[in-house]
Design goal:
alpha/beta; four-stranded antiparallel β-sheet; single chain; Aspartate Aminotransferase, domain 2; 37% helix; Aspartate Aminotransferase, domain 1; pyridoxal phosphate; aminotransferase; binds 4'-deoxy-4'-aminopyridoxal-5'-phosphate; 13 strands
């Protein structure tokens, strides 16, 4: 820490991303990336890109990409916001819509970045505990009708989905508060709340190309909602980083939207592998939560979460574990290819012998 850092950041706890080892090959099941490569259309688009154009700034409005996203989700381009990964949307929306004196509410077991961004912008927040079975306490979100809400759907790291009727109830309970639905994992069998954004001007949906579109390294997120919400996000974008999406990512993301069938097929494969993985883990005595995401959340009674994580790491497999109350004996395992998941099951069998 330098002597120049502002006092308020001196003890600030930033977000800890999952490990990204650069010099050792692991079976990487720790950060919910896709095990499948981007579509051939994306590779072709990259090869055909005139790199000479990289000297020019990208289109800050992202018009062409917005038009394609809008067509796919049956909204208007004015209802679409583009960002550098969906983490950026969280950041921009916390900046735009939440204040120090009004509350933001989110589940107690959820994406840990919410707390960090809230802290960064001095937003006061309250955590609504998940129920005993790790489902979201919808009544808990409805009884507080004033606080803005952020909910991942499906939730992370549990993978459990909340039905659209519940999202509707939460939005309806307080029409003057904003409900941000973080749909980073919606493409693996979940149902999107995008159609609700036409009916509710207090629902904003964020999605990402990182998971289902095999594009975590390309950093592209997008939000959909009422035109006025999108304008508010753009106010923040143009006040922080007008060129928040780079030229190459924009071109490749457009190409990936032309290959929607390819990504849908991959999602089906991942859902099938998820089913296989859950059964394999259960046959080893694990509890596995019902997941609609590209990961499963599991607990093995015979072994602590930490030991499971370290034992697998020694065997060349990376998964995610949090030393946090209620979930210290649980681990999150990204769904990889069938072969990767077979190796995981073999390694666990050996560890449990
Ligand atoms: N929301 C949730 C719930 C996530 O798990 C992640 C990935 N860590 C994100 C948003 C952000 O993903 P990205 O910035 O890659 O779009």
């Amino acid at each position: 820490m330098s002597r120049f850092l502002k006092d308020r950041y001196k003890s600030f706890q930033s977000y800890t991303p999952g490990e990204q080892p650069q010099d050792q090959e692991y079976i990487k099941l720790n950060t919910n990336e896709s095990p499948y490569p981007p579509a051939p259309e994306v590779i072709r688009a990259l090869n055909e890109t005139d790199l000479e154009k990289l000297r020019l700034y990208p289109d800050p409005t992202g018009r062409k990409l917005k038009e394609k996203i809008a067509a796919l989700y049956d909204v208007k381009p004015e209802n679409v916001f583009l960002s550098n990964g969906s983490d950026d949307i969280l950041n921009f929306s916390f900046m735009a819509f939440n204040d120090a004196d009004d509350n933001l509410i989110f589940p107690d077991i959820t994406y840990s970045f919410y707390k960090v961004i809230a802290g960064l912008h001095d937003v006061s927040y309250r955590e609504v505990p998940l129920k005993e079975d790790f489902t979201i306490d919808v009544d808990g979100f409805c009884s507080d009708t004033r606080s803005n809400v952020v909910i991942p759907n499906p939730n992370a790291p549990t993978g459990i989905e909340l039905g659209l009727d519940s999202i509707r109830r939460i939005a309806e309970a307080g029409r003057d508060r904003l409900v941000l639905v973080d749909e980073a994992y919606v493409d693996f069998g979940g149902t999107s709340a995008v159609p609700l954004t036409k009916e509710y001007d207090n629902i904003l949906v964020s999605q990402t190309f990182s998971k289902s579109r095999s594009f975590a390294g390309g950093r592209l997120g997008f939000a959909m909602g009422n035109e006025s919400l999108i304008k508010d996000l753009e106010l923040i974008q143009y006040s922080t980083n007008p060129y928040n999406v780079n030229r190459l990512s924009m071109i490749l993301a457009e190409a990936s939207l032309d290959a929607d069938d390819y990504y849908k097929e991959n999602s089906m494969k991942i859902q099938k592998t998820r089913q296989w993985t859950a059964s394999a883990l259960e046959s080893l005595g694990a509890k596995v939560l019902p997941s609609k995401a590209n990961f499963v959340f599991a607990s093995v009674p015979a072994m602590s979460g930490q030991d499971l994580y370290s034992g697998l790491k020694k065997r060349g497999i990376l998964i995610r574990h949090w030393n946090q109350p209620r979930i210290e004996n649980w681990v999150r395992i990204t769904i990889g290819t069938d072969q990767q998941m077979e190796k995981l099951a073999e390694a666990m069998k050996e560890m449990l012998k």
